[in-house]
Amino acid sequence: MYEEMIEKSVAHYRDLLESQIKRAENLNNAPALEKKDKLVIGVVGGDGIGPIITAQAQRALEAALKDEIAAGKIELRTIDGLTLENRLAVGKAVPDDVLAEIKACDVLLKGPTTTPSGGAMMESANVALRRELDLFANCRPVCVPEQGIDWMFFRENTEGEYAIGGKGIEIPGLLTMDFKVTTVAGTRRIARAAFEYARKNGKTHVAVVTKSNIMKKTDGMFSILCREMAAEYPDIETEEYFVDIMSANLIKPSMHSKLQVFVMPNLYGDILTDEAAQIQGGVGTAGSANIGDRYAMFEAIHGSAPRMIARGAGDYANPESILRAAVMLLQHIGMPDKAAKLTAAIETANRNAPITGTAEGCTCAQFGDAVVAALA
Ligand code: NAD
């Protein structure tokens, strides 16, 4: 009785497989980076608290980069239109005109965007952007010196459950199936990024996190390829962990200073980095970088906080997350001194304009004022 649905699903599966084979083959042909006279930083507000916190990060970048902006070497370009309303109106996770504007920039500072869940079949704008710009490495630092934590997460950013997450199969009333995809080239490049980071930053330990005992093909291959990569870095100790025990290890004090660099498939990275950010003080305190060979996008690790907006507390959102992302952006564009200055300014603002998320603390804009004052 299911024959027709099986036929339809098999045809759908064949299309998916063909598209993923094409993607996997193209991963080896990354475009070379062009040398340009002017670097363009696109600024995208996003949804919910996105525009509120992003405005403060934009002010901070304008202050930190005022000389380069005045000399025409750097442009901060505001890009509108990546809002849920606009995306729903045109039925695209990233409208074509917005994508074209984004691709005309070199790096992007992006506020969080809302993804409708369940029935509304709109793909996440973030997932679409990571795919379109081929931002394969999601790098998330978590630092709590008093607990001996100095971690850097390398989350694979374009594959796993996210590659074709919105394209599963459904036999109505009976079952649903989603697909997880891991490619050889996709795994090797995230493993390379993690080990290279470790080597360049004097780190001695890399933790490879999978669930290869259950997801034998996808995570199994991820684990094998990371082991092969580890052999090229004999100076670094590599250990494999399953994601379940790693989620426990993150809150086990005796593991804190042993763990240094992590590399893992997409979904585990999504989950573990939120847990790690909570140890640091909450998702509002953590920034992240999405890095590819051509483009890079910097953002807060959290979402658009719709409940905060609904209770009228949006102006009290913490911009530290996106300011930390701006620090990573400055590091990425080769300005470590300005990055260090902005980090110090954020710390000053934390002392002078503490944020609580409620009217008892400072507003997001007051925090931004304190950052800009510290940068002057
Ligand atoms: P969320 O991160 O928006 O909120 C989780 C909790 O953290 C809420 O209590 C919120 O009030 C609080 N919070 C988040 N950022 C804060 C900040 N800067 N200051 C103070 N408190 C803050 O998570 P969610 O509710 O699961 O997701 C909301 C929407 O965001 C969803 O549509 C989701 O898909 C989307 N999302 C987007 C991104 C992104 O664009 N990178 C990331 C995650 C989630």
Given the C-alpha coordinates, what overall shape results? globular
Q: Find the count of extended strands (DSSP E, 2+ residues).
A: 12
Which structural class best describes the helix and strand composition? alpha/beta
Helical proportion, percent range: 40-55%
CATH third-level topology of the largest domain: Isopropylmalate Dehydrogenase
Number of domains: 2
Computed over alpha carbons, the radius of gyration is 21 Å
- SSE pattern: HEHHEHHEHEEEEHEHEHEHEEHHHH
How many strands, what sense, and barrel or not for the largest sheet? 10 strands, mixed
- List low-pLDDT spans: none
What compounds sit in this structure? nicotinamide-adenine-dinucleotide
CATH class of the largest domain: Alpha Beta
Quote the beta fraction: 15-25%
What is the averaged pLDDT score? 94
Number of helices: 14
CATH architecture assignment of the largest domain: 3-Layer(aba) Sandwich
